[in-house]
Amino acid sequence: MCTGTACWAAERGAALGTVAAGLGVAPASISDDGATSLAPTVCLGLCHVGPAVRDGDVLDAGPGAVDRLLAGACTRAPAPATAVHGAAIPPDGVLLGADDPAWPGLRHALAISAPNGCARP
Amino acid sequence: MKDADLKGRGGAAFPAGVKWGFVAGTTPADGQRVVVANGDEGDPGSYIDKHLMERRPHLVLEGMALAAFTVGAQRGFVFVRSEYPDSLPALRRAVAEARAAGLLGANVLGSGLSFDIEIHEGAGSYVVGEETALLASLRGLRGTVSARPPFPAARGWHGRPTLVHNIETLANVPFIAAHGASAYRALSPGATPGTKLVCLNQRFVTPGLYEVSFGTSLRTICDGLGGGLKDGHTLKALQVGGPLGGILPASLLDTPLDFAPLAEHGCMVGHGSIVAFDETTDMRALARHLMKFGADESCGKCFPCRVGLRRGEELLDRPGPVDRAKLEALLETLELGSLCAHGDGLPAPIRSLVEHFPHELELV
C-alpha cells in the first residue's frame, strides 16, 4: 500500500486501515499462514490516481482499487495524461512524445566529435 | 554541455556540464570511468522518471551513451527502484534493441568507442536515491550514505570516477547533442534552459505529466493544465519538488516554476512533483506525516537524522501545543548536522508550515 504524500493528500491514509482489516493482516506484518504480507511503501508513482496499491507486479490505483485488491483482482492503473505547454517548446515536446530507438543525437555527436570526447586518454 | 547549462533535475540543480568536466578530467589508474543513471525516484508525488523509463527508455540510454563518450566511460548502470515493476523490462528491452543496432557494446557504430549498460533493480530504500547510498547499494552493500568528499565524480563505483545523473537530466542530453546549446536555451526564454516535466497529484481535475518551460507560473500549471481541484475543493497549499521541498500557500500561486523564485519562498523545483492539498487538510497532520516519512526512511548512518526526525515526529504527534523554540532548535540541528539531503532537507516543509500555518501547528 502506498503511504506517500500524494496518496495521503487523496485519502489521509484511510485505505491502509481498510486493507489491513480486509486481509486480517496488520501493516508491516505477515499472515499466520505466511501466504499474505502487507507492506506500507513510500510511493508507487501513481500519484495521478491514488490511493495506489501493488499486488505482485500489478500496480492498481484510484476508485475501486482497494476492493479489487481485497478480491485478488487488481488491474493495471491507467497511465497519466500528458501534454506539452509553452510556445517555445516543439509541439511533441523534448521529453514527452515518441521514443526514438535510432539515437539521432548520438549519431550526430559521433559524426562531428573527436574520438574520446573530452576525456584524457 | 556547459553552454547549454543543463541543471541537474534530481533536486540539487548542479550544472551537468561542470560535473562532466570533473569526471573527464580524472586520471583513473585503470582508465575506467562509469556512468550511473539514478532511477530510484522515491520522492512521494513524483512519477516523472517512471514515465521516462517506461515510455522513453531509449532517450535515457542515449543520454547515458552521450555522457559516456564525452567523459570516457566504458560502463553504465541504470539503478531502478523495485517499486516500479514495469520500468525494469522496458529498460532491458531498450538495452537489447540498442545492442542489436550497434548502439551499445564494443566499437559503437564503428567509432572505436565501447560502452555498455546494465539494468540494476533496487531493494526498496528511499535514501538510496542519494548518490553515495545508491553507489553502495549498487555494489551490494547496505544502502547508507557516506560523507562527501570524495564525490562520486572522483571516487565512485568501486573507486572509479563515476558520473551519477538523475533520469530526467540524462533525457535532456540527446536534444542538446542533436540541436545545440542555443536551441536548448531557447526552450525557456529568459529562464533556466531546457524544459521541465511536472507531475500533478490526484486532487486536480486533470492530473498528469506536463512538459513546460521554466518560468511558467504555478497558477498556469495548477489552474490551466491541472484544471484546479476536483469536486469543488479549493487549494490550500502545494508541496513542490518532493518531500524535501517547501510548502507554498495558495496565496503565492503566481510564483514562477524556476529555481530562484521558488527559493525566495523556501521552496525548490526539486524533482518537479506538485502535490496539492485541499482546504480540508489539517496542516499539523501533514507535518506529522512528513516527519514520520522522514524518520521511517532515514538510513540511520548519522544520528541527527536518525534520532532527530523521530523526535520531530513525536513532538508533532503528542496532542496539544508544540513548543516552537524546541521545534526550531531541532530543525536547525537537522539542517546543520545531517550527513545528506534527507535529514537537512526535511526541515524545509516544516519551516514552511511554521511560517504560513503557525496556528494550525498549535505553536506556542
UniProtKB/TrEMBL annotation, chain B:
| All copies of domain NADH-ubiquinone oxidoreductase 51kDa subunit iron-sulphur binding, residue ranges | 284-330
Family annotation (InterPro entries) = NADH-UbQ_OxRdtase_51kDa_CS (IPR001949), Nuo51_FMN-bd (IPR011538), Nuo51_FMN-bd_sf (IPR037225), Nuop51_4Fe4S-bd (IPR019575), Nuop51_4Fe4S-bd_sf (IPR037207)
Question: Which keywords appear in this protein's UniProt record, sorted alphabetically?
Answer: 4Fe-4S, Iron, Iron-sulfur, Metal-binding
SMART domains attached here? NADH_4Fe-4S
Top-level taxon of origin: Bacteria
Q: Which family does it belong to?
A: Belongs to the complex I 51 kDa subunit family.
Q: What is this protein called?
A: NADH-ubiquinone oxidoreductase 51kDa subunit iron-sulphur binding domain-containing protein
Species whose genome carries this gene: Paraconexibacter antarcticus
